[in-house]
Design a protein that fits this description.
InterPro entries: BUG, Bug_dom1. The chain is α/β, with parallel strands linked by helices. It is 45% helix and 19% strand. The longest helix is centred in the first third of the chain and has 26 residues.
Length: 327
């Protein structure tokens, strides 16, 4: 007798797959059919949260569904980013990440729960802002060369929002480039780091420009340089680190949207198109500009993939040279 059980099982499997494929395609065609959760790995009020909440209303219009900003802070955004990496790859749970968790933490944390290149898929960067080097007004240095000269004579202390993030690596980059006595003083968040810089408990601070903008305008801190290739529109009188003689001190925070790996390409393409339209909207540009944040998009998701690979290499070199660790 012929054993037909195996062929029948194969046929049943083929039929099952054939039934699933149209359903999956239909789901992609209907995307999005429910709210999208945009996860931010930092607490409310920080740069990531600000960017997410500026983008969300217009993003909702262009993607055709409600976009809900959801804060899941902890461990330099690793907790929130890992949550997204483990979520269903259907385009309904995505993250607005930044340089710290996506390009720096893999080099400064000993046990990363996710791989940004394997467990996530990049859609595009959406914005960028430089780090700002600022000092307490009592510090005699008024320019970057003067600050470097001062660091050759005594310790110059700089606060940051914590170990292992972009501000920390920016401080280490300054230390390496200046060959001065630059001392990193980590705090638990930008708020206390700024408070002690204003109070004179440390000489200066390096964090995202938007966080220091008001303090500089009020004269509570003195801006020394922006760590970017060009000056910031909101601080045109503040030179770049390159103009100050340290072109390798390049530390700008970029913000990017990523989805879980294996999210279907049609879904990624829809998200990409809507995000680029959002960032190019005049009212969104104006809202970002007021805070010293610039639109920054990639030509395609693939281009963003190459960008993040280069950032991982660049910050890996700084982390290794400085020995910076988060834990």
């Amino acid at each position: 007798m012929l054993n037909l059980s195996k062929p029948l099982a194969i046929v049943a499997g083929v039929v099952a797959v054939a039934a699933i494929l149209p359903a999956a395609a239909a789901a992609q065609d209907d995307y999005p059919s429910r709210p999208i959760h945009l996860v931010v790995g930092f607490p409310p009020g920080g740069s990531n949260d600000i960017v997410a909440r500026i983008l969300a209303p217009k993003f909702s219009e262009f993607i055709g569904a409600s976009v809900v900003v959801e804060n899941r802070p902890g461990a330099n955004a690793i907790i929130g980013t890992d949550y997204v990496a483990r979520s269903a790859p259907d385009g309904y749970t995505i993250t607005l990440g930044s340089a710290s968790p996506l390009a720096i933490s893999p080099h400064t944390y000993s046990n990363m729960p996710f791989d940004p290149l394997k467990d996530l898929i990049g859609i595009t960067t959406v914005a960028q802002t430089p780090e700002l080097i600022a000092v307490n007004p009592k510090v005699p240095a008024k320019t970057l060369p003067e600050l470097v000269a001062l660091s050759k004579t005594r310790d110059v202390t700089f606060s940051s929002s914590g170990n292992g993030g972009l501000p920390h690596l920016a401080i280490e980059s300054l230390k390496i480039a200046s060959k001065g006595r630059i001392v990193h003083v980590p705090y638990k968040g930008a708020g206390p780091a700024i408070t002690d810089a204003v109070g004179g408990h440390v000489d200066g601070i390096i964090v995202d420009l938007p966080a220091l903008y008001t303090m500089v305008n009020e004269g509570k801190l003195r801006a020394i340089a922006v760590t970017n290739t060009h000056r910031a529109d909101v601080m045109k009188d503040v030179p770049t680190s390159a103009e100050g003689g340290l072109p390798t001190v390049l530390a700008f925070n970029w913000f990017a949207v990523m989805a879980p790996a294996k999210t279907p390409k049609p879904v990624i393409d829809k998200l990409y198109k809507a995000l680029v339209q959002t960032v190019q909207a005049p009212d969104v540009k104006a809202s970002l500009a007021k805070l010293g944040i610039e639109p920054f998009t990639q030509t395609s998701p693939a281009a963003f993939g190459e960008f993040i690979k280069a950032e991982l290499v660049r910050w890996g070199e700084v982390a290794r040279a400085s020995g910076a660790k988060a834990d």
